[in-house]
Design goal:
Blueprint: H1 2-21, H2 28-52, H3 60-65, H4 70-83, H5 97-110, H6 128-159, H7 167-200, H8 207-242, H9 246-254, H10 258-275, H11 285-291, H12 296-306, H13 311-328, H14 337-343, H15 349-360, H16 364-378
């Protein structure tokens, strides 16, 4: 039974890799998932070989070291999937440094001398300290990267919540939540069962078998997402395409010329300056595009490709400018900074403070104080 599931997991992991590789456009997050699935395939392969070949009887490499990479893979996949970066930052490889260091130490100093089977894990011998240290590193690493991942998803939800009227954004958020929750559930179950076996010195549950089932489920989930995702995006684009006239459909193919883009950008800025729609905290991409008599697709393309920004960043820049103008005026001294931020369209204090410091290099309070000092010192 266990061996059969190992083969199923191996085949499914490699099948999912093939699905990802056949996409028309392979983004960085896809490449990270491909690397993760290849590592999972390596784990399945090592476990399979340990059953059939004497040279692979020691399955410690597969069972206890490869899982150290899963936490970094989860975090990096979520980060690149959310941010949409087009180039992989080589410095991110440092996330795998603990895996490389611990594996190197094991192969150099403890190869085949120290066993990590959970039943005798707490057995008093010369390597008890090393096993406990490894267990703490494994638990801490996985826990930290899981927390980082959920924090990233939370920030994505809080910062870009206005874009969630977009089906694509909802799918991205739901998928990341699902894969993170599944990983967390597998990690908690795996660690809890392993700890219970170690404390009781009995194999109440086969930990490696449990791990095989969990990783197979993970591979199936990613595979299902790869199959469904193109269908979802095809439906989204097809709906918007069908709502256009023949001339609009031709415009999709041609996009915007530089002259057209310049005129649309001018019209967009004039509307933002005159009507100040950004003061409405409920402003969304759909609402703004409707007011401009544009589709969400066209507005998004204009912002991304001709203005080098996105909807949230574009709107928040106007809100920040409005806040700064009000902070400089004595007429608003009776209002708190948070009240001013809310009046200007922000609805999250933490988001406002973060964006303000990012754009000005200081906090709203210090900015206001510094401006007043400079103003009255010149007078």
């Amino acid at each position: 039974m266990k061996e059969a599931i190992i083969y199923v997991g191996l085949v499914q992991s490699l099948f999912t890799v093939c699905l990802l590789l056949t996409r028309k456009k392979i983004i960085v997050s896809d490449k990270i998932m491909i690397a993760c699935l290849m590592v999972i395939s390596l784990r399945f392969l090592a476990m399979s070989l340990s059953h059939h070949h004497i040279l692979f009887r020691n399955a410690d490499f597969s069972i206890f070291f490869i899982p150290l990479t899963f936490g970094p893979f989860l975090y990096l996949y979520s980060n690149y999937h959310i941010e949409g970066h087009q180039v992989f930052n080589k410095w991110d490889l440092l996330h795998f440094a603990p895996f490389v260091i611990i594996l190197s130490v094991y192969l150099i100093f403890f190869n085949k001398e120290i066993q990590f089977d959970e039943v005798p894990y707490f057995q008093r011998d010369a390597y008890l300290g090393a096993r406990i240290l490894f267990g703490l590193i494994f638990f801490s690493s996985t826990l930290i990267y899981t927390i980082f991942t959920f924090a990233k998803i939370r920030d994505f939800k809080n910062t870009l919540y206005k874009d969630l009227n977009s089906v694509a954004s909802k799918l991205k958020l739901n998928w990341l939540l699902f894969i993170s929750l599944l990983f967390s559930a597998l990690f908690i179950t795996y660690f809890s069962v392993g700890l219970y076996n170690a404390i009781t010195f009995t194999k109440n549950v086969d930990l490696s078998f449990l791990s095989v089932i969990g990783l197979t489920l993970l591979a199936y989930s990613v595979s299902y997402h790869c199959i469904q995702q193109p269908m979802y995006y095809f439906q989204i684009n097809q709906i918007e395409y069908n709502q256009r006239s023949d001339s609009d459909r031709q415009e999709i193919k041609l996009r915007f010329s530089e002259e057209e883009a310049r005129k649309l950008i001018s019209r967009l800025h004039k509307f933002m300056d005159d009507s100040k729609p950004y003061l409405d905290p409920e402003l969304s991409l759909q609402i703004l595009s409707s007011k401009l008599n544009m589709t969400k697709y066209d507005l998004t393309y204009l912002l991304n490709n001709h203005m080098g920004t996105n909807f949230s960043s574009f709107v928040n820049e106007y809100r920040l400018k409005e806040v700064i103008d009000k902070l400089k005026s004595r007429d608003n001294d009776y209002l708190t900074i948070v009240a001013i931020a809310y009046d200007c369209g922000f609805n999250s204090k933490s988001t406002f403070n973060s964006l303000f410091k990012q754009h000005t290099g200081t906090t709203p309070t210090k900015f206001k104080e510094q401006f007043r000092l400079e103003k009255y010192s010149t007078n």
